[in-house]
Amino acid sequence: MSIFDIVGPVMVGPSSSHTAGAVRIGYICYKLMDEPIYKVEIGLYGSFLATGKGHGTDKALVAGLLGMKPDDIRVPQSFELAKEAGMEFSFYEAKLAHANPNTVALHMTGESGRELDIVAESVGGGRIRICKIDGLDANFSGDYPTLIVHNLDQPGHVTEVTSMLGHKSINIATMQLYRACPGGHAVMVLECDQEVPKESLKWLEHLEGILKVTYLSLKE
User: Fold this and answer.
1) Is-contact 210 164, C-beta < 8 A?
2) Which of 102, 108, 196, 214 sits 20 to 30 Å CA-CA off 33?
3) How far apart are CA 152 and CA 155, in angstroms?
4) DSSP 152-182
5) Rounded Cα–Cα distance for residues 139 and 160 (Å)
6) Per-residue pLDDT tens digits for 63-79
7) Which residues does 117 contact at the CB level (< 8 Å), separation at least 6?
8) Span 188-215, pLDDT tens digits
9) Antiparallel, parallel or unpaired: β 127-133 and 115-124
């Protein structure tokens, strides 16, 4: 445990879980979209729904979706800034089972028409976890460059992805594999120590059996 885990993040308050964590969730979603967000439907669950308005959770999420970080002094003005940017946003009560009380479900549409569904939770101290992407388990923190590959559950895809990363001298910090059912849709989640080049992402997208490639870059 570091000193930052004890004293908490540098942030616009009042709450590290309901405000700073919410901004970070929005920011990681913004980075995963990799383009300006045109429209977003935000489902609040549990404590996020019950006490979020008092803690500014709603404004914090929108701020992150605009690309703000937890210490950005503009967080309280996020609704006005979103309207100026042309981003449509709405809130509803999310119906989730066995979820962390500080959980949010987001359905985002980018300016190109690309859509992305995220379920994420704030776990305290400004830390978060991305739980699901497009309905499949993901389970990563957003602390590392992260490659998410949706593919058909067929032999060879894991080797294709890991070989590409090895060829680019990219070290894998963690790797998780999930699938809906044998032979169905599957997902690989790889947290990396280095950034993955864009041309490598494009190469993956064109492989047979690869359904979707989503990438979290930590470059500013």
Assistant:
1) no
2) 102
3) 9
4) ES-TTHHHHHHHHHHHTT--EEEEEEEESST
5) 22
6) 999 999 998 999 999 99
7) 105, 106, 107, 108, 132, 133, 134, 135
8) 999 999 999 999 999 999 999 999 999 9
9) antiparallel
